[in-house]
Every structure is written in structure tokens, then in C-alpha cells.
């Protein structure tokens, strides 16, 4: 109820500003710069985004194959279609596969078959999202042991009806688990929710390769709404956890390039800058009453409309400040600038407890 009382106070002040503030119309124009729309506008398919910097360059995908398979040494290989990526380890007794993105699909079988005749004996789920493990049923014929965090099992088991494309894991764990097959070792660990509950940190110690899916996007800013992050504080903290691993190569699960520690450090700086910009926006970065005044005047008594106007201008303020500093530094800083800022604004408010005008009065 306190939120509604605060909105009512802001609404009364904003109505007056909407009628007499000399810049009310301009402020309202900023509010309407919302890239979250129910349906595309006439210009949405014609937007020209900023050129990608070279840091975002992908490996070359052979159009005839539709995928790229790279040898990382020590029996480890990665596969990408330019949008998704995963990894497999060839041991003396079988193959360990990490994730099975459906967009790569049967090409993953080709990549493994072109590398070894050994069967896939183990399949690791990084997390429960279908865009990363929706191709798991392709391995049903070899009956691999499927390994995942207990949270991943619970989330998959809760689906009704069950998804036959994502078989339930056979082995689950809470904190740490080591997959050992022949001469290959893959260490799995869980450090709390980040992108999703159950999202794993994975590490091949001999080859010094780390995997963390949907958190760090090497050379790029995060996918929309911070990669659809379930828990932003955990998503942000995951960068520091990842940096505790002694790795040379990083597999991120997305896009057509591998990462390094420098990529993780740069991505971490982006996240810190985005968070600081959003905190600044909430803590007086714009005139709230002037910004929401036109919406209040046009939607009397509609608290949701008022609050949407507030969240949109807060996110746009944050996005404008952040994007201006990251264009040309990371790929596509302008593409999901608003959406990432919008998710961070909500995280700052309800997960970090930075409430701005809606805090304790």
C-alpha cells in the first residue's frame, strides 16, 4: 500500500506539471522511447544498429556444413553454429558432452562422429533451458548417463507434461561433482542461482578450460534482459566466481567465438557500469514528476500505467548513459541497451533494495 500512496502523491504533482511544465512534452517523448512493444512498429525492421567492433568477430562457419568444430587440445572440442556453442571431451572410454543445443542439433552428432567412433557415455546439462539442452534426445540411442544439478532435475520434473526432448538426469548433486571417464575429467560446481537456479560452473582442469552458460558473452554485451537472468545479484557475482578458476579458454554457450579471462573482466566492467548507471537513474537521475506527468494525465487512476512510465524512463536514462560508453567496446551495446537496463532497474529496486522515490518515507 505504501507504493500506491507514493504513486498518488507523485501523480498529483505530475498532473500539475503536465498542464504547465514547459518541457512536459519533451520529457514524454523520452518516455515513449520504449523498445518493449506488443507488436513491431513500422520502423523496427529497418533499424540500423551501430557497426560491430572487431572484438565481436566470430569464427568462419562453413555454409555447406552449417557449423564449426574446433580442437581445443587434450581431446576437448567445441562446436558452434555462430549463435550457440557447446563442448565435448573424447576420452579413452567414451565421450562426455556438455549440453545439446537444438539449433546445432544433428550437426553435433556429425561433429562427434567425425572426431571419434567412441559412443557418448555421459551428457552434462548446464541448466534446464531448452535452447541449450533441447537436443538431448538425439543421444537416446547411446543411453548416456545424464548429469545435472538437483535444481535442474526438479525444474524439468515439474514440467507438465514432461518434455521428451529433455530426458530427466540420472545423476544429480548439490555442491560439487566430478565426471571421470577414461582419461578425461570435468569438474562441476554450483554456487547459487545466477542465470537460472541450477546453472553450473564447469572446468576441465588438465586443459584449463572453463564453461559457464548464459552469463558472460565474450566480446558482446548480454543478450536481452541480461540473458533473461533469473537472479541478477547471482548473475553479477558469477563473474567473480568464474575468475577464481585457472583457465585459458572459456566456453560461453553463445555466439561464434571462445573467451578468455580478459573477456570475463571486460564483461564484468560492463555489468558494474550498468548497475551504477541504473542506481544513479533511480536516485535522482531524472525528474520523476515531469517524466510521468503526461502518462498520469492521460490515465487517471491507472497505477500500472504510472509505474510503467516511471520504469521506462528510469531504464532509458540508464541505457542512454551506459550505451554511450560501450559502443565500439563490446558488440551490440545498442541492440539490447534498453532491455538490459530495464532488467537491471528492476533488479536494483527489488533485489538490491535501491528504491529511490519508493523507499521508506
Automatic annotation (TrEMBL):
Keywords: Hydrolase, Signal. SUPFAM superfamilies: Metallo-hydrolase/oxidoreductase. Residues 1-18 form the signal peptide. Transmembrane segments: none annotated. Residues 84-254 form the Metallo-beta-lactamase domain. InterPro entries: Metallo-B-lactamas, NDM-1-like, RibonucZ/Hydroxyglut_hydro. Pfam families: Lactamase_B (PF00753). The keyword Transport does not apply. The keyword Isomerase does not apply. It comes from the Eukaryota. GO terms for molecular function: hydrolase activity. This is Metallo-hydrolase/oxidoreductase. It comes from Mycena venus. The lineage of its organism: Eukaryota, Fungi, Dikarya, Basidiomycota, Agaricomycotina.
Amino acid at each position: 500500500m505504501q507504493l500506491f500512496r507514493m504513486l498518488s502523491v507523485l501523480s498529483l504533482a505530475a498532473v500539475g506539471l503536465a498542464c504547465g511544465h514547459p518541457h512536459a512534452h519533451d520529457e514524454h517523448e523520452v518516455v515513449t522511447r520504449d523498445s518493449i512493444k506488443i507488436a513491431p512498429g513500422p520502423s523496427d525492421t529497418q533499424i540500423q544498429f551501430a557497426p560491430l567492433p572487431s572484438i565481436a568477430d566470430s569464427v568462419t562457419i562453413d555454409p555447406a556444413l552449417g557449423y564449426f568444430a574446433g580442437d581445443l587440445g587434450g581431446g576437448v572440442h567445441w562446436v558452434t553454429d555462430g549463435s550457440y556453442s557447446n563442448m565435448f571431451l573424447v576420452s579413452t572410454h567414451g565421450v562426455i558432452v556438455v549440453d545439446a543445443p537444438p539449433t546445432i542439433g544433428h550437426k553435433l552428432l556429425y561433429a562427434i562422429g567425425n572426431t571419434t567412433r567412441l559412443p557418448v557415455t555421459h551428457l552434462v546439462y548446464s541448466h534446464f533451458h531448452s535452447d541449450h539442452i533441447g537436443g538431448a534426445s538425439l543421444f537416446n540411442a547411446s543411453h548416456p548417463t545424464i548429469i545435472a544439478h538437483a535444481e535442474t532435475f526438479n525444474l524439468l520434473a515439474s514440467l507438465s507434461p514432461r518434455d521428451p526432448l529433455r530426458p530427466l538426469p540420472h545423476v544429480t548433486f548439490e555442491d560439487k561433482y566430478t565426471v571421470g571417464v577414461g582419461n578425461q575429467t570435468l569438474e562441476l560446481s554450483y554456487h547459487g542461482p545466477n542465470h537460472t537456479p541450477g546453472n553450473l560452473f564447469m572446468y576441465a582442469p588438465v586443459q584449463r578450460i572453463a564453461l559457464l552458460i548464459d552469463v558472460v558473452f565474450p566480446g558482446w554485451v548480454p543478450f536481452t534482459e541480461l540473458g533473461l537472468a533469473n537472479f541478477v545479484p547471482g548473475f553479477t557475482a558469477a563473474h567473480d566466481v568464474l575468475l577464481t578458476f585457472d583457465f585459458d579458454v572459456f566456453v560461453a554457450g553463445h555466439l561464434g567465438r571462445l573467451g578468455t579471462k580478459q573477456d570475463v573482466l571486460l564483461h564484468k566492467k560492463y555489468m558494474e557500469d550498468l548497475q551504477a548507471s541504473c542506481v544513479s537513474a533511480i536516485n535522482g537521475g531524472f525528474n520523476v514528476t515531469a517524466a510521468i506527468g503526461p502518462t498520469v494525465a492521460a490515465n487517471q487512476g491507472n497505477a500500472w500505467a504510472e509505474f510503467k512510465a516511471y520504469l521506462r524512463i528510469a531504464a532509458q536514462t540508464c541505457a542512454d548513459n551506459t550505451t554511450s560508453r560501450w559502443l565500439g567496446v563490446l558488440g551490440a551495446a545498442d541492440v539490447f541497451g534498453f532491455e538490459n537496463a530495464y532488467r537491471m532497474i528492476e533488479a536494483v529496486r527489488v533485489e538490491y533494495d535501491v528504491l529511490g522515490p519508493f523507499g521508506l518515507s
